[in-house]
Every structure is written in structure tokens, then in C-alpha cells.
Amino acid sequence: xxxxxxxxxxxxxxxxxxxxxxxxxxxxxxxxxxxxxxxxxxxxxxxxxxxxxxxxxxxxxxxxxxxxxxxxxxxxxxxxxxxxxxxxxxxxxxxxxxxxxxxxxxxxxxxxxxxxxxxxxxxxxxxxxxxxxxxxxxxxxxxxxxxxxxxxxxxxxxxxxxxxxxxxxxxxxxxxxxxxxxxxxxxxxxxxxxxxxxxxxxxxxxxxxxxxxxxxxxxxxxxxxxxxxxxxxxxxxxxxxxxxxxxxxxxxxxxxxxxxxxxxxxxxxxxxxxxxxxxxxxxxxxxxxxxxxxxxxxxxxxxxxxxxxxxxxxxxxxxxxxxxxxxxxxxxxxxxxxxxxxxxxxxxxxxxxxxxxxxxxxxxxxxxxxxxxxxxxxxxxxxxxxxxxxxxx
Length: 393
Description:
Elements: E1 4-7, E2 18-21, E3 29-33, H1 38-58, E4 62-67, E5 70-76, H2 82-87, H3 99-109, H4 112-115, E6 118-122, H5 128-134, E7 139-144, H6 149-156, E8 164-168, E9 177-182, E10 185-190, H7 213-227, E11 233-238, E12 241-247, H8 252-268, H9 272-275, H10 285-295, H11 301-304, H12 322-330, E13 335-339, H13 347-353, E14 357-362, H14 369-378, E15 382-385
Parallel strand pairs: 6-7, 7-8, 13-14, 14-15
Antiparallel strand pairs: 1-2, 3-8, 4-5, 4-6, 9-10, 11-12, 11-13
Helix pairs in contact: 1-7, 3-5, 5-6, 8-13
């Protein structure tokens, strides 16, 4: 393995020189194809940590889709039902997918708009099934502990042979102290090596204390995802995958609203009318993603107005009314919600309830904890205090 990798430039083209290295040691990464950049490696190394911790916590293969140093999606390898196979563009005739391929499909499919041009992280050796799902997607690169020969050849064919493929040494353990510079000043801190587990969910502070194993799994996914999401951040999870991530907001209620809107989009994409949209056979995946996003928004005329719908559909579909969307969302439930710091007001719980949240994990410690607990109790939610803040910058 190399001692350093010279990069084309840093975050922006004017930031030169740029490189990655480990002081006094070899790098734990090998570039198998392409030429990854500065932000690529930031996404790769954050994503790698996330998927490794997800696998350690759940025992399942894990995948993450990263953009601009925050995850757009993260998931573990649970099977896909027919609806998810359709909204995730799993081709007909593919048959049963490997657990790792299911994890990738979930991570990529949670927020396809945000995942456009993403960096993929896998906890396990990339197999052929996963590589075939990755091949048609617009992506910058991938990091994994290894690749089968078939998978490597498939991935090398992307982007005219320039797709970025990085192999990570799974035995690598970083130093306990980490440093970075800002404006020529060096910051130093102990690495955030806290291990999130079911033990962090034992303090249930609400009247409802029924926390099924599926909710424990989903809350762990939410918390581990938040550990590698730019703060402030909130994460909604259902069925083993993040369905809405709100990252980098100054206000926690804005995190909750942003992540909640993304969760609503994920839920609305499964509405029978959305599943039955009569797309033109020539429309590409990115255009289809954008069209669905606009169709379920409050401004559907952007794709349904006369002279516009003909670019996307074989016939003009009737838009979903506000009442129809609300009725569909009100039928949903079983969503888990994690927050990287305490909720200061009950309004966050009010917003979460509108997206089917039934389980909440947050550090606690607000002077208004009683108000937040009362709001959860009003909706019969289960809430755990973890006493573990998860800021990431």
C-alpha cells in the first residue's frame, strides 16, 4: 500500500497541492481504478466507518450512499418486497438478490435525488449482484474491503473505464487522537470511538415501553447514521434503512422537517397511483426520479401542465390531492427517529408523528424534557434517552 496519494486538488480546483497520507505509516486504502479526489476520500472514509459500525451493531451487511460528507442513505441487507424492488428500479428477472445487494439497493433508493453522483460504501466484499445494481447508476465511486473478479470487471466498465474503485484494509485501526487544521490552527481531539448498541436504548422515558426488536434495529441504524452526518442532524428509519436524513441545519426543528419531508417522499413513492405512473419508455432514471419528486410535491403542474406532461408520460395522470397524500401518510407507522442532540421542544415530536414515527432515540438533557415526553405520550410513542451526543463536523 502507498505511503501517500497525490490528489488533483482539494475541495475546489484552486486548492493545491492536495494529498492524503498517514503520518509514519502506509495508507490503509488502495486505488484499484480511477483517480478519486479530496471530497471522494472524505465521503469514502466516513461511509466506511458507518457501514462497519452498522454491520457490527446488527450483524447484517451494510451499505451507505454519501454526498458532500453526509449520507443520503444507509441500510442493512434485509430482503426487498415487490414494491421496493419497483421503486428502486430492480430489473425484472434478476431474481433473488444477495444481502449486500439488498443493502445497497436500500441505501441508494432511500433518496435517489440526493444520491445522484454519490460515493458508495460497502461493509462486505462487493459481489456480482451488487455490482450489477451499481452499474447503471450515476455514481462517483465505491469503497469496500474487496471485490470479486466479476464485480471488479463490471465496475471498471463504468464511466468509460474511469470509475473510482477503492479497496479498504478492514484491519486498519486509526490513532486514538485525531487532528485537523482550520485557518492554519491545529485542532486536536480524541476520536469519537463510542460504540452504539442496544444497551443505549434501555432507558425508556415514556409511558409506552414496548420496543420490538425491529425498532431496536432501526433506532441503532438511525443513531449510527447520525454519528457520521454533519450536525445538526435527524434521521428517520423504517425496515432496516434510513428513509429521511436532515443534515447540517442550524435549527433542530428544521432538521426534523427536512428529514421528515424526505421520509414522506419515500412513503408517497409507494402510493399505488405513483407506482402506476405511465412513464414514457424512453425516460431515463434521473429524469424519472425528478418527475416523481415533482409529481408528489405541492407543485405538480411543473410536470403535469399542458405541453409538459408529454415529455414524461404516455398520458396525463391526475395529481394526488393534498388530502389524498395526507390520508396515505396517516396510514403509515412503525418509523424510528434518531436525533444527534436533545430535542428542545415538543414541536419536533409533533412533526415526526406526521411521518409515522412511533419510536424515538435522543440524548435527552433539555430543560423541556418533560414537554417532549408528554408530547410522545400523547401519541403513544416510545422514547429512549441515550445520554450520548453525536455531533459530527
